[in-house]
Write a structure and sequence with these properties.
About 75% of the residues lie in helices and about 0% in strands. By secondary structure, it is mainly alpha-helical. Helix 1 runs antiparallel to helix 2. The longest helix has 14 residues. The chain is globular, with a radius of gyration of 17 Å.
């Protein structure tokens, strides 16, 4: 199907081709949730910010109980350092899906960006309790540990992140 082609192109980092397939997929079925989520990921990669906000907001209207839309918007606002705008989306995602490790990673990122590293550490550890193989969280823990001058822990976390996902990009915050 078109969606599977979009997924494969995305996995091969062919974002423009993937986006073309997603647009065709959504033309056929505009309520295909997985395709909508991939569309938002692609818009983020393509740096189409206004469209990202519009489509994320539309996703929330169509699927108000899906935490992914809330997390996308929170992440978008965190990247712009708009903490007051990000926080309500994180709170809603937590209310909807308290069992989802991505929600705790989102809160960890929120506190990291605010420079509240103790709180950040706490939420990253909560994420790992839910998903002990969450490479991005190990990576983020390594960054926090480095800031706290806990260099041995930082090396341990970077190593674990790499073992879990050898494709993690250095210098990229998740």
């Amino acid at each position: 199907t078109l969606y599977r082609l979009a997924e494969l192109e995305y996995q091969m980092k062919k974002v423009t081709k993937s986006y073309a397939y997603i647009k065709k997929t959504l033309a056929v079925d505009p309520y295909f949730l997985k395709a909508r989520i991939l569309e938002i990921k692609l818009l983020k990669r393509l740096k189409k910010e206004s469209e990202l906000i519009h489509r994320s907001s539309q996703l929330l209207k169509d699927f108000p109980n899906n935490p992914k839309g809330h997390l996308f918007l929170a992440s978008f606002y965190l990247n712009q350092k708009k903490f007051h705008a990000a926080y309500p989306y994180l709170k809603t995602a937590l209310k909807i899906a308290p069992e989802l490790a991505d929600v705790y990673k989102g809160f960890g990122n929120y506190y990291y960006e605010k420079g509240e590293f103790d709180n950040s550490l706490e939420y990253y550890q909560k994420a790992l309790k839910l998903n002990p193989n969450f490479a991005e969280v190990y990576y983020n823990l390594a960054l926090v540990s480095r800031i706290r001058k806990e260099y041995e822990k930082s090396v341990e976390y970077f190593t674990k992140a790499y073992e879990l996902n050898k494709n993690l990009k250095l210098g990229h915050f998740f």
